[in-house]
Amino acid sequence: MRLTEVSYGTAKAVEGYGPGFFRVAGHVLRGACLITPWDAGPWGGYDDTAAPLSLLGRIDVLFVGTGASIAHVPKAFRLALEEQGIGVEVMASPTACRTYNVLLGEGRRVAVALLPVE
Predict the structure, then answer these.
(1) Rounded to an integer, what distance in angstroms lies between the CA atom of residue 19 and that of residue 118?
(2) Which residue from 50, 53, 46, 37 is spatially nearest to 85, judged by alpha carbons?
(3) Domain containing 25 — which CATH number?
């Protein structure tokens, strides 16, 4: 069997996470964060729909990592994005990181909003 390493080019992949942080493209981000193929930074949580909505036309799906385990996101948050045409997929943050990286490696138009794993 031949194994090859995934190349993300210049895209920002999630390299790791731990209690209260995510490592993205060699940088550590603390707390909730929003990661796209071209940028990574803090995110204001479910009250912050402006940041993900600013990605309109650049992404098709936003993965939302809800922390250590899967949880419901507020209906208003989901509707604000879906009404503008951004799909919202909710999962635990570790799963959201892996899913984002896989689809990023396939060149898909994705982003991930993550709540930290405590």
Answers:
(1) 5
(2) 53
(3) 3.40.1230.10
Which residues form the domain of 61?
14-114
- What is the pLDDT tens value at each position of the chain, 118 positions in all? 565 567 777 899 999 999 999 999 999 999 999 999 999 999 999 999 999 999 999 999 999 999 999 999 999 999 999 999 999 999 999 999 999 999 999 999 999 999 999 8
Q: Are 65 and 115 in contact (CB under 8 A)?
A: yes
Long-range contacts of 80-85 (CB under 8 A, 24+ apart): 80/49, 80/53, 81/49, 81/52, 81/53, 84/53, 84/56, 85/56
Cα(22)–Cα(65) distance, integer angstroms: 12
Q: What is the pTM of this model?
A: 0.93
Per the domain annotation, does 3 fall within a domain?
Answer: no
In the chain, how long is the greatest CA-to-CA distance?
47
Cβ-in-10-Å burial (0-12, 13-18, 19+) of 23 comes to middle
Q: What pLDDT was estimated at residue 10?
A: 82
